[in-house]
TrEMBL record:
This is Chemotaxis protein.
Amino acid sequence: MQVNQAKSQFVAVASIAAELSAVMEVAKEISLAAANAKAIAFRAGEKAKGFQPITDFINELAKDTIELVNNINEYAFHLYRLTVNEQRMTEACKRFEKVEQLAAGARYADSLTTSLQEVRLRTQLCHREFILQVSELLIKLADVMHPARAARVIAANSRIEASQAGEYLQSLQAVAESVDNAAQIINDKVHKCRSALTIINVAE
């Protein structure tokens, strides 16, 4: 593993962890918005009858997003461990190679060859697993985009239903705006995660 490559992997994994943390917070905000909307719709009664089932959809989307992000976090943590392991094994390879050079011509110098080959093989296997996990994570991140897109559609429908809620119009429209904004933030954060992973793939 080259120094620049190792650095890019660490930066990418750290970036993903930060972005996913932000997505989780936004998903929790959506869940809170759903609870607030449900309370407002209940008070509005018949005026917001069409809005009430929408709050359930919003809450389900928030739960789905949180579940997906929790799952993705496990992949991100695994990528971090793989990066650390690969870096350690790369350093071990360098030390073995240096010792092998210094021991050239010594009586038992050949005994180092097997150990060096084993460390090289383990490093290669670790890197292959890293690349495989990157591909899996890209797929998982694509899954998060589905609830984000659905949230934007629901936000649009929420505005329509809110327009019929009389004095509760502004309160319900605020909910719709918060869901729409949250969906956009999630979309942006996930896009940043995917970009970070794509850069690693291109660098391979």
